[in-house]
Design a protein that fits this description.
Layout: E1 70-71, E2 96-101, H1 113-127, E3 137-139, E4 145-147, E5 169-174, H2 186-201, E6 210-214, E7 227-231, E8 233-235, H3 236-239, H4 247-250, H5 253-263
Parallel strand pairs: 1-4, 2-5, 2-8, 3-5
Antiparallel strand pairs: 3-4, 6-7
Helix pairs in contact: 2-5
Length: 267
């Protein structure tokens, strides 16, 4: 299992986003995911919904990438499973994307993806008592992109995916486990690149660039308040001490950045 801080004992039943500090690990969920999760105070620096700008209306069209097809939440979250939650929180824009993996099995049918995402959601809301799923988007092995956290896919929704760096970022989770040597489906990487190109393009950000993000939590790789220079298309491990998104997927990041930049028309 790779979604953990280095040298930490494997927790085979504890779940959720890649890597919660050991003292905070307290629950599991029935979908069988093997990773663990973390969260900070969501929206602590975010804007209230009424003040949140719509990204599509704030940036010029230069270097915009086409919006990929995104399956809405209703496909995996029906009324019988939905929890009451507060209104979404927003930042001013998304200037970076963090890539994760869910640390769940890889041999799933893509027709079963909604159930898998619902299992992640239930683990995080029931098991961890979070207000929603932490990832902004999830991508399955067939390249289908799903809306994760509520608030509007084209808006800068404050997520709960990378401790210390949830603000002005979006979290994309690849459904599966991508240890070293694990094949990464081409359909998945193509979809991740397209999604990152579109989301970063809304703020005019080159996926090959680096951006300054301010850590909001000392449990990240940087003390709270530190201005960190991080890749605009980063792996979870860039902001938090973890192996996530797995060595195989992390090795694809340079190619993902190039593909996303090409989709933005930068060369």
């Amino acid at each position: 299992m790779v979604c953990r801080p280095p040298a930490r004992t494997r927790h085979t039943v504890l779940v959720l986003l890649c890597c919660l500090p050991v003292a905070a690990l307290v629950g599991g969920f029935a979908a069988g995911a093997r990773g663990t999760g973390h969260v900070e105070t969501v929206g602590r620096h975010g804007l209230p919904p009424a003040e949140a700008p719509r990204a599509a209306a704030t940036m010029p069209a230069l270097h915009r990438a086409p919006r990929p097809r995104i399956v809405r939440r209703e496909a995996w979250l029906d009324a019988s499973h939905r929890h009451r939650q507060p209104p979404p929180r927003y930042d001013d824009k998304v200037v970076a994307v963090f890539l994760h993996h869910t640390d769940t099995p890889n041999d799933y049918s893509c027709a079963d993806t909604p159930r898998i995402i619902r299992g992640l959601y239930e683990g995080q809301t029931d098991g961890r008592h979070w207000d929603d799923i932490g990832y902004n988007f999830l991508v399955d092995r067939c390249g289908t992109v799903y809306e994760g956290r509520a608030g509007g896919v084209d808006r800068p929704v404050t997520g709960a995916h990378t401790q210390g760096f949830n603000h002005r970022t979006a979290g994309i989770a690849a459904i599966g486990t991508f240890d070293a040597g694990t094949p990464v489906p081409r359909a998945m990487t193509d979809a991740i690149a397209a999604l990152a190109a579109w989301k970063l393009g809304l703020a005019g950000v080159d996926p090959r660039s680096s951006v300054v993000l301010v850590s909001s939590n000392g449990h990240s790789r940087y003390p709270a308040g530190t201005a960190a220079l991080l890749p605009a298309l980063a792996g979870h491990r860039d902001g938090f001490p973890t192996d996530c998104p797995g060595a195989a997927l992390a090795a694809r990041l340079p190619a993902l950045r190039e593909t996303a930049a090409r989709l933005q028309g930068r060369f």
